[in-house]
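Sequence design from tokenized structure. All designs in this work follow the same two-part layout: the structure record, then the generated sequence. An example of the structure record is given first.
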């Protein structure tokens, strides 16, 4: 049961609108949790004196609280007699709602105490494909192992959509490559990756120690769906080189891209760690890219990190702390052969 003296109760529906349509709602501002708690105690004990003893308060104080409660509701709640008290019909209704309110407050207090300790909660994340494929499975597994009661909802979106979801408040955290800018959002470093060129092992470019993206534009390319971070980077680089992109196939996932490349349908840009994880889909060769833009930063985004719920802040701290230790050396998977 909540402790006495917590203060004015929030505007909780003590009675439904249908039951008390004409009631002046100002009574809730004069009602407090202690009065409700004492009313329930009196009902359960059937006596003001016994309720006063149970709650360690003077019987006269209990009587005063009950009288104020009846005045606020403008209706009698108890029949008083020599043997104790009985409930009026209005008292029965109030008892039902009062118990519900106090039980809800008990639950709220318990859950909030768990939030304060960082062991319970719900965090919403929107992340782009590269972050999800390369890093988040292990990082989130480590977090949930330490905070098993925290529920994480993760959705995959294109980087511009991730930024927009954070800006609109549709998600707590965003994780992406900020190709199109982040506006007024706050950002923290999460990971770094490096794009490399994935080619079939017998492709003419496979023998090169490294290559500039401009020198790949005479070959058919396998691209990701439009407006992905990789798609935007390829389009920008092709524009700078003054050559068109020969996009033969667009796919929606890195695994599908690698399969298309292994089948000889084209070449494509793949993040280095993703290549290490997906290279088993076919006979692929990684060729390092010499372009500076191939090295990319993945950011954690929020509207205000300080204003995030406790559990979300714990997750941010975990991701920031774990990333450097687990991050592969950029390009460390490039050039390795199956």
């Amino acid at each position: 049961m909540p402790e006495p003296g917590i203060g004015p109760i929030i505007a909780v529906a003590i009675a439904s609108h249908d039951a008390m349509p004409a009631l002046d709602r100002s009574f809730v501002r004069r009602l407090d949790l202690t009065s409700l708690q004492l009313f329930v105690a009196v009902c359960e004990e059937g006596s003001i004196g016994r309720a006063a003893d149970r709650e360690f308060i003077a019987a006269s104080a209990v009587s005063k609280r009950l009288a104020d409660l009846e005045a606020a509701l403008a209706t009698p709640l108890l029949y008083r007699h020599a043997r104790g008290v009985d409930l009026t019909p209005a008292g029965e209704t109030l008892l039902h709602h009062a118990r519900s309110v106090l039980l809800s407050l008990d639950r709220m207090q318990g859950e909030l105490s768990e939030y304060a300790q960082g062991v319970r909660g719900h965090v919403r994340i929107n992340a782009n494909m590269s972050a999800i494929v390369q890093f988040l499975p292990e990082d989130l597994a480590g977090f949930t192992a330490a905070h098993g009661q925290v529920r994480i909802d993760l959705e995959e979106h294109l980087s511009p959509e991730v930024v927009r979801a954070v800006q609109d408040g549709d998600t707590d955290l965003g994780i992406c490559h900020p190709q199109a800018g982040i506006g007024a959002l706050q950002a923290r470093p999460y990971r770094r990756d490096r794009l490399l060129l994935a080619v079939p092992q017998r492709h003419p470019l496979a023998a090169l120690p490294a290559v500039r993206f401009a020198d790949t534009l005479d070959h058919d390319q396998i691209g990701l769906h439009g407006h992905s971070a990789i798609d935007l980077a390829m389009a920008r680089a092709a524009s700078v080189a003054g050559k068109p992109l020969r996009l033969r196939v667009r796919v929606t996932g890195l695994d599908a891209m690698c399969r298309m490349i292994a089948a000889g349908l084209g070449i494509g840009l793949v993040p280095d760690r993703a290549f290490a994880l997906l290279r088993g889909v076919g006979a692929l060769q990684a060729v390092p890219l010499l372009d500076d833009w191939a090295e990319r930063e993945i950011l954690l985004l929020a509207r205000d990190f300080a204003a995030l719920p406790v559990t979300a802040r714990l997750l941010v701290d975990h991701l920031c702390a774990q990333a450097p230790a687990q991050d592969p050396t950029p390009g460390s998977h490039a050039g390795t052969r199956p």
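Confidence is low (pLDDT under 50) at residues 1-23, 326-338. We note this feature because it recurs in several other targets discussed in the main text.
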